[in-house]
Amino acid sequence: MFPKPIEHAAPSTQILYKVALPIALILWLLPLLGVAMTSLKPSSDLAAGNYFGLPSYIAFSNYADVFTNSPIAKYILNSFKVTIPTVIGAVAISCLSGFALAVYRFRMNLLIFFLFVAGNFVPFQILMVPVRDLTVSTGLYNTITGLALFHIAFQSGFCTLFMRNFIKGLPFELIESARVEGVSEFRIFWYIVLPLMRPAIAALSVLVFTFIWNDYFWATVLTTSAETQPVTAGLYSLNGQWIAQWQLVSAGSIIAAMPPVLMFFLMQKHFIAGLTLGATKG
Amino acid sequence: MTGSATTAIAGTRTQRPGIWKRNQRALAPWLFLAPGIAMFALYVIYPIVASMWLSFYDWDGLGAKTWLGLENYVELFDDDAFYTSLYNNIIWLVLYMLAVPAGLFVALFLNQTVTGIRIYKSLFFFPFVISQVVVGLIFSWFYAPNFGLFYNLIEWLTGTGVAVLADDRYVTYGIIAAGLWPQIAYCMILYLTGLNNVAPDQIEAARLDGAKGWKMLWHIILPQLRPATFIAVVVTVIGALRSFDLVSIMTDGGPYGSSRVLSFYMFEQALSEYGFRMGYGAAIAVILFAIMMVFISGFIWKMVRDERGL
Q1: Which pLDDT does position A279 carry in this prediction?
Q2: Which of B51, B137, B181 has its CB closest to that of A249?
Q3: Are the CB atoms for B99 and B251 separated by under 8 Å?
Q4: Structural domain boundaries of chain B?
Q5: Is residue A72 exposed (0-12), middle (13-18) or buried (19+ Cβ within 10 Å)?
Q6: Is the bond into B101 cis (omega within 30 degrees of 0)?
Q7: Under CATH, which architecture does the B79-309 domain have?
Q8: Residue of A126, A165, A200 whose CA lies nearest to B231
């Protein structure tokens, strides 16, 4: 292990480390802690200049305010309506294309694979005008379907890369021996490979959920009204209305951040496995 | 191919295998790929080509397109806002790279086994999970004049506070600092995974040879962390060039356009209240795309090499 395990260090160093840990963490999360604290302050505290002290009382009413006086519940619902179909669609498509690119040898294999990889890295702006046009002309502009369809297509690049590399790591003999038995290619996919992909599907679902939930750019480009906007774009317009009401901005931010945060803490193992695929060899 | 031989054997049960049976192996990959390729071609490949084509036109998004040839690009060469954005993109790119060593540093700090370390690791990773919109709002509050934590800290240290986001000298750096927060967390998690997989026997052998500290890190650990470093560099470069959310949330490009980056300037030209200049926007996007392609080709080239080596 590197660096040297701290248990082997002098007792004073060990104590120093254990003191340094929480201090470092508090400094690291300081902006976040500040916002969390602000979200619980009554507006009278802020008016009286109590910016850093503890709240004079815990004002959960800010959260109630945000829910009753803004369409945030609708925004959150929209986010779910965009995110969940995208996760299902992108993961399903990439299971198929990842399987094709991992298992079959054909001439265009690497070319197609790297097209997916490269497409995944392009700046959004090069896609913006034509995608917006396409969405307008199909009548899907400012609809949840239009936004989700784009996300499915774009995410299938990253997801295919991920699935293809995962399937490459599976024992190929399984597929070979099934072929010798005369099992059809679709049955091989459905009954042999797909069950083995469960951890990859879980990891990818958590990742895509977070990516799409947090998307802001496409939400602003493809949706315009409170009826369809997801919470990231919604928060931006609310921020414009809540000028200087930081207790509301903070509460709104925390509400918007909650679903991916919960997802992360509940599915941490999968999340990190997904994110770090390829960070190690083998 | 041995493949067709086995299909043939499998096919002997039914006397004459049909076209599907005989060509299954060749057709199957295309069937599996069809939905992915169709979606990707429609929403990614075609728009790239269409944007390039559009960059030679003048178009307000509704009426007829007028052919301009290279005029959009010629205009870009004289556009101060374009140069400001390009310059800011370079600052972003350079400073964003700090996330890689900083992430390594945090990972080294946390790579211990004391009790509760797992919770520390997840909490350090926390900023990455939050949307950039929320990160932007958090840092706007942090920098806010008069009551922001950062403002007061500077005031306490130097006597006068600095309104970071309203000062064209600091605004880009202020936004980059906000962007580094989640990016460092991302690099940290990549390196923590990498460190977990460093071969212990090599470390022991190096320790016996008297290597420690920096020497050990440089000669033994870093070479083994190369895959993690590669991914960290890729995601950081892409992240820096994609920066849009934070600029939009924190300053809307201001003050006086001084915090614009190419991605934001493009959006502003093509879709904001200043008018729908789709062709001009597309030209900016093409420039950004060209810059990114330099990096993307580099990454792909390395990946192809690794792929061949397998």
Answers
A1: 62
A2: B137
A3: no
A4: 2-54, 79-309
A5: buried
A6: no
A7: Orthogonal Bundle (1.10)
A8: A165
Residues of chain B contacting A94 with CB distance shorter than 8 Å: 36
- Provide the b/e sequence for B147-185 (b: ≥16 CB within 10 Å): bbbbbbebeeeeeebbbbbeeeebbbebbbbbbbbbbbb
Tally: H helices and E strands in chain A: 16, 0
Q: How many CB atoms lie within 10 A of CB A166?
A: 22
Strand boundaries in chain B, DSSP class E: 57-58, 66-67
Looking at CA atoms only, how far is residue B22 from chain A in angstroms?
Answer: 11
User: What average pLDDT score do residues B177-185 get?
Assistant: 95
Written as six digits, the tokens of B6 are 């086995």
| CA gap B22, B8 in Å, rounded | 7
Beta-strand relationship, B57-58 and B66-67: antiparallel
Shortest CA distance to A146 belongs to which of A132, A127, A129, A126? A132
Count of residues making up chain B? 310
Residue numbers in B near A152 (CB within 8 A): 39
The ipTM is: 0.90
Q: How far is A67 from chain B (nearest CA, A)?
A: 17
d(CA A169, CA A282): 8
| Size (chain A), residues | 282
H/E segment holding residue B173: helix B171-196
Contact between residue B244 and residue B264 where contact means Cβ atoms under 8 Å apart: yes
What pLDDT tens digit does each residue of chain A (282 aa) get? 788 888 888 889 899 999 999 999 999 999 888 888 888 888 887 777 777 777 788 888 889 988 988 899 999 999 999 999 999 999 999 999 999 999 999 889 999 999 999 998 999 999 999 999 999 999 999 999 999 999 999 999 999 999 999 999 888 998 999 989 988 899 999 999 999 999 999 999 999 999 999 999 999 999 988 899 999 999 998 888 887 788 898 999 999 999 999 998 888 888 888 887 766 643
What is the distance in angstroms between the CA of the first residue and the CA of the last residue of chain B? 21
Q: Residue A5 carries which DSSP code?
A: P
Mean pLDDT of B248-270: 92
According to the model, what pLDDT value does residue B90 have?
Answer: 96
- C-alpha A203/C-alpha A163 separation (Å) is 10
Yes or no, beta carbons of A280 and B196 under 8 Å apart:
yes
- Give the tokens for residue A66: 């945000």
For B43, the closest of A150, A189, A276 (CB atoms) is: A150
The structural domains of chain A, ordered by start, are 66-275 (1.10.3720.10)
Q: Left (φ > 0), alpha (ψ -120 to 50) or beta: where does A100 sit?
A: alpha
Nearest CA in chain A to B126: A261
